[in-house]
Amino acid sequence: MLVEVNLDDNSFHSQDVVNQFRHFMASIGCAVGLVVFGERIILLRDSFEKSNGESIDMVGEARLPDYLLPPADEQWKGNPSLEFESRVQRWLEKLKLSSSIKNLPNDLRELFGEPIINLLRLGEVMAAGPRWSKAAK
Amino acid sequence: MKPKVVLVETNWVVDVTAPPHLQIPQAIDLLRQADAGEFKLYVPAICLAEARETVRRRFTPRSRSEDLRKFVKWAKDQGRVSIEDARTAFRIFDQFDGLVAHELTKVPERLDALANHPGLSIFPLSEPMLERQVSIGAMDLSLQPYDLAILAAVIVKSEELQQEGFPWVGFCELDSDLKPWNKSGARKPILSDLYDNARIWVYDDFSLEEIDQLPENWTSI
Question: Does B26 touch chain A (CB under 8 A)?
């Protein structure tokens, strides 16, 4: 599963982000993707019926209220984008716990369902690149 | 900015030599770009040996279709799918198992064929690489023997390439143990220093994303 995190929800460029993300999912053969735009989260899934990401459909979207997100890792404080990434990562890690799932708003619980939660339980949520070098900039 | 030389490891070899329907487009594209002369691609020979085992283990068909077979049998018995649908499903599983098993026998051929790609160089572990493996092994990195050998090979190769006029290299790798950052994106000091000193830019995938700015002095020999 791939996750793309954007601090802002700018509808003007969000479609571009989703299209690029679709392309990236297809290029590595990834079946499930989550895109976060601020307080909005989108779930994408590839049925693999077509090539080049043409069968990647938007399953749905839900609100991701700020209060659900745990505090960021201290080391990313001061850089809003990295803080937000870190908060989303920590939230996804916490979703492995059944108590966290119970606290999800209905729309989010419905969007995720068992398959996504199971994916999170099976794997490890990893930062896809070095945050320290972005922080240094 | 993109590198003129790119190193890869076992995960890339697995991704380009897997049965065709399981190969990763991004990995194939990297090889295509290298063959087109956009950069030179290097892989330690030890990665081919590791991939030979990994491909067989990861893609052995029985384990991949068995759960689905059990599900279809159960669903048919429960009346959740029709007998005809179940028959079709089993025919597809048979085809899948047959195809994958057949393709797995071709893995050694595909590994050998990698050597014929003009953009790819497969290099053996040299004496300096083995020596470096010992010195890095004493650095408390907790790496598995294969990872240690690959890391030493990549570092020494990068240093050799600097002598040949390539001031820095890219390293596309998917192994979390070899990444210079941890799961939260924080720097792993020892590993980062090893890569930085050898002027190796580590990529998290095979897309060779544009680099805005390289570390100081990396562009001079």
Answer: yes
